[in-house]
Specification:
mainly alpha; 3 helices; globular
Length: 61
């Protein structure tokens, strides 16, 4: 089974939604993703991998 690749834009949008809504579960269900995948993307974002600014109500999850 091939591993699915997601575009940079898609990852940024999912991270943005997760940080704004502060609910990984609802964002994961909406995009049919595993919540651990979103958690990893958020960690990568916080490490500066995506070089994009996301407004969030809370700085940590």
């Amino acid at each position: 089974m091939k591993r699915k690749k997601y575009s940079f834009e898609f990852k940024c949008e999912v991270v943005k939604q997760a940080l704004e809504e502060q609910s990984l579960g609802s964002v994961a269900r909406r995009h049919q993703l595993n919540s651990l995948t979103i958690y990893r993307w958020i960690s990568e974002y916080k490490q500066g991998k995506y070089n994009v600014v996301v407004n969030s109500k809370q700085s940590t999850l």
